[in-house]
DNA sequence: GGGCCCTCTTGGC
DNA sequence: TTCCAGCCAAGAGGGCCC
């Protein structure tokens, strides 16, 4: 409470002191920065903005959280505390039993990596304050700029205010990846199984190399750093310790171009940890630091052990275990297996807008990007999450779990549109899409036999279960370097096998005309744009497919009656539902109206007769469609309307297609039992001939 | 009550 | 002049369903 009083006591005179956004954890090279001046400038430049208001909201939330915890703490009785102390003591003994001092870990961190690479490529930048990034956000600042308080993740316009002579250099990931690759070639010589944490950081188990070459850990680190400098011209810092958590802390101690070795000795570890500020530990950020400090007065790792009963009493067992491990200086010492990716996403910030059409356009782009990224990595997922950031910086996420795995932009867009529609109207400044809940096979191997969408089929294979990828050598990636995607922060430690499929990344698409049809990517987008209205009307892609192969009698694309409002559409659909297939007299109830297309309304109801068939009843749907088509043909013949040739032609065309499908299928799969092949598959196969 | 799903928060880089 | 990112993972808590 005293701490809080002192803060609030200065609030009125120096309000920026309580604005924690600007300056929460000094980076290397910022020790001599006039912290108060930086805080004041950042505060003044941010004040009144929507961003600032949101930060204040978050601050208030954090304070509330701290207050709640204080209340909970005050409710703990002596008996409770005694109980939790016993639990904590037991847990400490158990955790201590897991201590492993047999390995020596080295953490390498390149010094101001992006900025250093840029300076290397343009020596005129040397000695001048420089930041990589732009006016909206900077990625890295060199040490000259850091002296002014400029740092990563700071908006450029604020950085410029702090350092008026600041030079901005745009990011060039290609360049950074190249230099990152060079460093990794060096890392491999010391630990072939090194863990890349990002483009500029890595963990190496140097136990073996030290033993084999009878070198001390410090010598190994020295040699490795020299080698990095020789190969790249860049400097790095290193930390050596018995585990990765400590090694990371150590690499920061003598930055830049320095190293620190913590001996593999329990006493040395405990001494080191005793005065280590909790914020230096990976996993403890701004919020956790405040909670521990304000509620329990824990500022050093040692404090975690001193307040162990409270931690066990007020946090979940998982969180309490983490805190106790920190207090004991424990960390991971094993070399983990490459973990599989859990999700894939993309998001874009833009000028805040309420324009529905513009927002849908953004969604189309995101769906396209996500689909392409998924195909590149051979992933199919089931849970789609839409992320929105409103103009007031409020972040919303909305998710939906689909019945089948997918990676197709059509599927993604279809479901994302529904999620977005439910959130509108809203003023949005960021939109993102994430796919998670991948099929276990990864690499696009569907575990769901019902997976039938166009793009999925292309990736996953045909109905026989044979992967298309089987036809080409599977590209196994031993080196995780090449797996990095073009962002600074992607987790390159993950190793993926990828199949060399769809190298051209063409997307097949169904053209809205009688003829068959395969469009390339550039056309896809245009068509998706055209169909935004349809998506909003809950007309799904099954309809598109149905219309493509069995187009509307007038030959035009007709997903819905163009002049129908959603309300009207619903109404007419209901009307149709009242009419049985054979009731066909009168315009309203007739399934024979040549101007009316067959649609699966809301993905289950026939627009002509109201019959209900779930989306996965593909064969039944096809038969149902055939019925209507034959019905229409019969009517045209009997009425003498001169449309017969057209319809007959279409039937003939379809018959021809189906026979081709059969032949192709037979050719590809030795034993084809299916008399019907899903339309998605057909197009996937047909497309192979284009 | 357990499992699953969704939402939100936190944290790292 | 310019006005606060984009990616990933993990944990917690609440709602719903069987």
UniProtKB/TrEMBL annotation:
Keywords: DNA damage, DNA repair, DNA replication, DNA-binding, DNA-directed DNA polymerase, Magnesium, Metal-binding, Mutator protein, Nucleotidyltransferase, Nucleus, Transferase, Zinc, Zinc-finger
Catalysed transformations (reactions): DNA(n) + a 2'-deoxyribonucleoside 5'-triphosphate = DNA(n+1) + diphosphate
Enzyme class: transferase
EC numbers on record: 2.7.7.7
Pfam family, one: IMS
InterPro entries assigned: DNA/RNA_pol_sf, DNA_pol_Y-fam_lit_finger_sf, DNA_pol_Y-fam_little_finger, DNA_polymerase-Y, DNApol_IV, Rev_trsase/Diguanyl_cyclase, UBZ3, UmuC
Cofactors: Mg(2+)
Presence of keyword rRNA processing: no
Record domain UmuC: where: 105-285
Domain of life: Eukaryota
Span list, region Disordered: 465-486, 551-592
Keyword Cell membrane: no
Basic and acidic residues biased stretches: 560-578
One BP term from GO: error-prone translesion synthesis
Family: Belongs to the DNA polymerase type-Y family.
Name of the protein described by the UniProt record: DNA polymerase kappa
Originating organism: Olea europaea subsp. europaea
């Amino acid at each position: 409470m005293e701490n809080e009083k002192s803060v609030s006591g200065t609030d009125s005179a120096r309000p920026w002191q309580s604005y924690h956004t600007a300056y929460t954890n000094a980076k290397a090279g910022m020790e001599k920065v006039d912290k108060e001046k930086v805080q004041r400038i950042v505060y003044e430049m941010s004040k009144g903005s929507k961003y600032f208001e949101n930060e204040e909201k978050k601050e208030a939330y954090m304070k509330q959280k701290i207050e709640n915890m204080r209340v909970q703490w005050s409710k703990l009785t002596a008996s409770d505390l005694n109980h939790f102390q016993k639990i904590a003591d037991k847990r400490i003994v158990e955790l201590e039993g897991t201590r492993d001092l047999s390995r020596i870990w080295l953490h390498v961190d390149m010094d101001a990596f992006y900025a250093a690479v840029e300076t290397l490529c343009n020596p005129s930048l040397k000695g001048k304050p420089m930041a990589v990034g732009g006016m909206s956000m900077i990625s890295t600042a060199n040490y000259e700029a850091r002296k002014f308080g400029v740092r990563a993740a700071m908006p450029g316009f604020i950085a410029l205010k702090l350092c008026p002579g600041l030079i901005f250099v745009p990011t060039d990931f290609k360049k950074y990846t190249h230099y990152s690759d060079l460093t990794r070639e060096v890392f491999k010589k010391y630990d072939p199984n090194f863990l890349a944490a990002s483009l500029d950081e890595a963990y190496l188990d140097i136990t073996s190399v030290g033993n084999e070459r009878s070198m001390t850990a410090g010598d190994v680190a020295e040699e490795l750093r020299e080698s990095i400098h020789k190969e790249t011209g860049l400097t790095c810092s290193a930390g050596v310790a018995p585990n990765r958590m400590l090694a990371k802390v150590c690499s920061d101690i003598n930055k830049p171009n320095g190293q620190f070795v913590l001996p593999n000795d329990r006493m040395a570890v405990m001494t080191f940890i005793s005065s280590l500020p909790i914020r230096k530990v990976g996993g403890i950020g701004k919020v956790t630091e405040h909670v521990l400090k304000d509620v329990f007065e824990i500022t050093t790792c040692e404090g975690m052990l001193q307040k162990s009963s409270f931690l066990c009493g007020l946090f979940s067992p998982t969180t309490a275990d983490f805190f106790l491990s920190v207090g004991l200086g424990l960390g991971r010492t094993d070399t983990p297996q490459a973990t599989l990716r859990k999700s894939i996403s993309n998001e874009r910030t833009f000028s805040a807008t309420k324009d529905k059409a513009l927002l849908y356009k953004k969604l189309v782009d995101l769906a396209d990007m996500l689909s392409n990224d998924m195909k590149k990595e051979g992933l199919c997922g089931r849970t789609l999450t839409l992320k929105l950031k409103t103009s007031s910086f409020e972040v919303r996420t909305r998710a939906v779990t689909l019945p089948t795995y997918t990676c197709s932009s059509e599927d993604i867009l279809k479901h994302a549109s529904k999620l977005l529609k439910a959130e509108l109207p809203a003023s949005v400044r960021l939109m993102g899409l994430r796919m998670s809940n991948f099929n276990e096979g990864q690499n696009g191997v569907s575990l769901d036999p019902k997976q039938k969408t166009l793009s999925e089929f292309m990736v996953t294979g045909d109905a026989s279960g044979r992967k298309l990828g089987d036809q080409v050598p599977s590209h196994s990636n031993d080196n995780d370097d090449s797996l990095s995607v073009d962002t600074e922060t992607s987790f390159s430690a993950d190793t993926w096998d990828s199949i060399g499929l769809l190298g051209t990344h063409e997307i097949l698409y169904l053209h809205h005309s009688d003829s068959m049809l395969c469009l390339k990517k550039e056309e896809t987008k245009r068509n998706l744009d055209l169909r935004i209205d349809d998506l909003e009307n809950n007309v799904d892609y099954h309809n598109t497919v149905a219309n493509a192969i069995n187009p509307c009698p007038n030959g035009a694309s007709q997903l819905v009656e163009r002049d129908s409002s959603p309300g009207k559409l619903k109404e007419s659909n209901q009307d149709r539902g009242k009419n049985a297939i054979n009731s066909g007299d009168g315009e309203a109830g007739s399934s024979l109206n040549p101007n009316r297309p067959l649609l699966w309304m809301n993905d289950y109801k026939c627009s002509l007769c109201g019959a209900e068939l779930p989306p996965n009843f593909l064969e039944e749907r096809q038969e149902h469609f055939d019925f209507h088509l034959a019905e229409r043909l019969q009517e045209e013949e009997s009425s003498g309307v001169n449309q017969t040739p057209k319809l007959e032609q279409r039937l003939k065309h379809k018959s021809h297609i189906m026979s081709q499908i059969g032949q192709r299928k037979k050719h590809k799969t030795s034993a084809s039992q299916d008399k019907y092949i899903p339309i998605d598959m057909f197009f996937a196969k047909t497309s192979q001939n284009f």
